[in-house]
């Protein structure tokens, strides 16, 4: 009999590429991951990994087991969802991951609705950049989360996850109201307000500026869009902001639509769509497009 926890580690190795990365994702030591994978090989009765020094690669049998392993993990999620649906009322935890502007505009009303409808459901919200949500879902640190992509930064959630669309929005260039700029290229020498490195917003801004023929000069690094827009209004720089962040726009800011869009989706583990808590969360979100 194959151990499901070890099977999950093998699937993660296929996705992440190294034992060190799998260990980091699960807060294990690399030695512990190696021992678990060796135990899985003994259970399978066939070599699953090819080891060359410190490097490992999946054998043909390993790749086959990963393929079936993803099916097994999905079936387990479906089983858990079916059992939860058989209970009376929604109980237990629902761990949610989302980015700040969505928490303020979309999730707060949804959480209030869920709390009123399902008082026994323990809602746990974590602020998280969309780029970090897929790994948190796979590692079972989250049950549901908001993921994003831009036209200029396409992203796939990858194996083991599925998602449903939530929001498709315009992306703007935010400049001071008295600025004469009309395009990105006009701001090649401006000071820019950028999100933190590694975030999706940061990457999207770099891609947009690169397409316009320049690299933005970072003047400030700020993740909160409310602060970003206040700095723009004060003449402290320019920034790329999505439509969702422009509610309550300061009077000193002018928005210029850019030829790219941002899409937000609700993501969860493959097989969890029928889980009543996940379904209730999606149903509570406002019907935006």
Automatic annotation (TrEMBL):
Keywords: DNA-binding, Transcription, Transcription regulation. Residues 2-59 form the HTH lysR-type domain. CDD domains: PBP2_LTTR_like_6 (cd08423). The keyword Transcription regulation applies. It comes from the Bacteria. Belongs to the LysR transcriptional regulatory family. This is LysR substrate-binding domain-containing protein.
